[in-house]
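Input sequence (124 aa), recorded before submission:
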Amino acid sequence: MPPRPPPTPRDRPRPTQRSRRGSTDIVATANNLRRDGASVGDLKIVAGAFKEMRRAFKVFAPYRHIRKVSTFGSARTQPGDPVFQLREAFARRVADRGFMVITGAGPASWKPANVAPDGRAASA
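Predicted structure, token format:
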């Protein structure tokens, strides 16, 4: 399925009471962390994670209607290894069921998960 184009400012829904409450909760949690005496390092970790999540939401917005599965594993596993073959079978099965496979890796152990059974890209 081709990705949907990202929404334009006119397409974005107006904030609802639920989204405002969610935003308020985020700000309150950040303030509580500061008030609890979280270290500068801890606050940087939270801020970094929050920025990464925001970017991921934007990147995957066009694929919101597609189910996703994220995979993890060692980059040292070689193609002849039974684990590599298991990963290939797993990726094929979930891709055949319409899932987008998210590997976070390039070629190596998750190469089989990066390509759909028909050879087209199946991962992000």
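Checked by second reader. Residues 40-60 form the longest helix (21 residues).
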